[in-house]
Design brief:
Strand content: 25-35%
CATH superfamily of the largest domain: Aminomethyltransferase beta-barrel domains
CATH architecture of the largest domain: 2-Layer Sandwich
Radius of gyration: 20 Å
Number of domains: 2
CATH topology of the largest domain: Alpha-Beta Plaits
Order of helices and strands: HEEHEEEHEEHEEEHHHEEEEEEH
Shape: globular
Number of helices: 8
Number of strands: 16
Structural class: alpha+beta
Helix content: 10-25%
Largest sheet: 6 strands, antiparallel, barrel
Length: 319
């Protein structure tokens, strides 16, 4: 039986912040870096470098895309914003600005454009009232819609950005719980150059299969043509008795079939909730064993789906 124990560090302050954010809007550092690509050739050049079709974009619009190596390896998951017809702002998880710029410059040749890092910061807004809070922002702040969070939201970006009045500033632990509950993969945790985009559920929102060629397209297209049959999938794994750490093994029978990549206490699941990669021979929903150090805990693996958290809670409570 699930005891609803939130684990170490999750006290009344965190719970109050979580509940306030769930009813309104949570604000926390977005952890994003920004690059500007501008010039008369910017649109055509980027369209040949990124997985998403940019040709239908209008000034002010944003799309999610992948930046791949020529071999199809994942370098970054980007949001591409058309700031003007000849100026684009690309943003992505912090820590890879140099790599992104180097990759974008690699095939520039004689294209008339510049690629430069922007000294911007970003505040994430998530929750049902986030849209109301971005109304009336000044022109110095860009309100960038978030495509990869199922319930939406915005990242506020600019040189000096602060949380808007009315938002609940939440601690890092609450922000991490919200990310894991949203099933959002993060570079350095779920994502790296070794990640196949289809494993992390990234293809549908970031890839166009009707546009022309782009760098790294072959691997993505080949996997899609084979029914996206990849060796592993990103899933949720919940544990009623503990919060398994990153790296914890997922075991079925006597075989290790996956590993935890991120974890936090989840009020919605009423359990420790993990993002984890699970090998394809295990089809969720499925009971699993979580193993780390001297600990062994029962868990439940489910596919990442908006209705799955309630199913996790029910499954754990009946176990």
């Amino acid at each position: 039986m699930n005891q609803g124990h939130p684990g170490p560090g999750w006290g009344e302050r965190f719970q109050n912040a979580y509940e306030a954010a769930a009813a309104g809007a949570a604000a926390f550092p977005a952890g994003r870096e920004f690059v500007a690509v501008e010039g008369p050739d910017a649109l055509q050049y980027l369209n040949g470098q990124l997985s998403q079709d940019l040709l239908g974009m209008q000034p002010g619009s944003s799309v999610a895309s992948l930046l791949l190596s020529p071999q199809g390896k994942l370098l970054s998951v980007l949001r591409v914003t058309m700031a003007a017809e000849d100026r684009f702002v690309l943003d992505f998880d912090s820590g890879s600005s140099d790599q992104v710029i180097e990759r974008l410059m690699r095939f520039k040749l004689r294209s008339k454009l510049t690629v430069s890092a922007l000294n911007w910061t970003a505040v994430a807004l998530r929750g049902p009232t986030a849209g109301e809070l971005v109304e009336g922002l000044g022109t110095a702040t860009m309100a960038l819609p978030v495509q990869l969070w199922p319930e939406g939201g915005f990242d506020l970006a600019g040189e000096d950005v602060r949380p808007p009045e009315g938002a609940t500033i939440v601690p890092d632990a609450v922000a991490e719980a919200l990310r894991i509950e949203a099933g959002v993969a993060k570079m350095g945790a779920e994502l790296s150059e070794k990640t196949i985009p289809a494993e992390a559920g990234l293809v549908e929102p970031t890839v166009s299969f009707t546009k022309g060629c782009y760098v790294g397209q072959e691997l993505v297209a080949r996997i899609d043509a084979r029914g996206s049959n990849v060796p592993r999938r990103l899933v949720w794994v919940a544990c009623a008795e503990a919060i398994p750490p990153r790296g914890a093994e997922i075991v079925v029978g006597d075989k290790v079939v996956g590993n935890v990549t991120s974890s936090a206490w989840s009020p919605r699941a009423d359990a420790g909730l993990c993002l984890a990669y699970l090998r394809r021979e295990v089809s969720p929903p499925a009971p699993v064993l979580l193993r780390w150090e001297d600990e062994h805990r029962n868990g439940q693996a489910v596919g990442i789906d908006p209705s799955a958290l309630a199913k996790i809670r029910d499954a754990l409570q009946s176990s």
